[in-house]
Amino acid sequence: MRGNVQKILVVGAGHMGQQIAVQIMKHGLNVIVHDISQANLELAKKKIHEFVSELNFNVTSEIKSIDTDCDLVIETVIENIKLKREVLAKLNTVVNKDAIFVSNTSDILPSKIAKYTGRPELFCAYHFHSPLYGANIVDIMPHRRTSPDVVKVLTSFTRTIGLIPLVLKKESPAYIYNAILNSIMDKSVELVLKEVAGIEDVDKAWMGNTGMKIGPFGMLDFIGIDTAMHVTRIRAKKNPLKYIGVAFFKKYVDAGKLGIKSGEGFYKYPNPKYLDYDFLK
Asked: At 72, which helix (H) or strand (E)?
C-alpha cells in the first residue's frame, strides 16, 4: 500500500463521479475517469471542463486501457451490489495490487463487497456528499478486515482534497447523514402518497422552517431519483412497507426524469422552481 496518494482512478462518469473527479483535480492531483459508456465519458469531459480549466485527467471506456499504476481506485457506479462486486473484481485483475480500493456506496455495507475486490485489507466504503454543491463531508467506513493504515491514508487524502473525513466506529447502513436523511425522505414521500401535501408544499414547509435553500424533493433531484429508487429497494428487503416508495420513484425513472443529471426530476433544471425568489410567498 502506498501512503502518498497522487494518482486516482474514478470508476463511473455519472453525476457523482464527475464531482469527485473535479474535487480531486482542483487540488492538483491526477485523475483517470473510467466508464464503459463512451457517451457518458464525453458528457463527463464537458461537465468537468465547466469547473476545471486545465485538465489533468484522462478518460477511458476500455478497462484494459486503464493505467494500472494507481494509488487509489474510487468506484462510483450505481447502487447495485451485484454490479459493484463485478466491477471491483474486474478492476482487481488490472490495477496494481498495492492500490487502495473504495466504494462510494451510500447504503451497502463494505463487508458485503470486500472479498470481491481481491484485496479486502485495502478496501473500505468511502462516501462523498456532492462536494460541488457545498457538501464537504466524506464518510470513511472500514469493515472488520480493513487495515488501520488504509483509514489513516484516506483520512489524510480527504483533507488534502479540501474535505472533512468522518471515520465511523462500526459498519452501519446509510452512514450518519444518510441515516437521518432517509427518515426525512420517507416521511416526505409518505405525505405526498397519502395526498396530505404536494411535492412543492413539502419542500416549502422544510425550507420555510429550517432556512435551507432546498427541500427534500429538491435534495432527491440532486441525489438522483434512480439512486433513491435503488437505495429504497435495498431497504425494502428488510421492511416491505417501503416498496411503495420504490414504485413512487420508478414512475419518474421510467419517464427518464432522474433529477438534475437528466434536466428534470421533481423540478426542471437548470432553473428549478424552488430557487424562484417568490417560491415561499
From this structure: strand 72-75
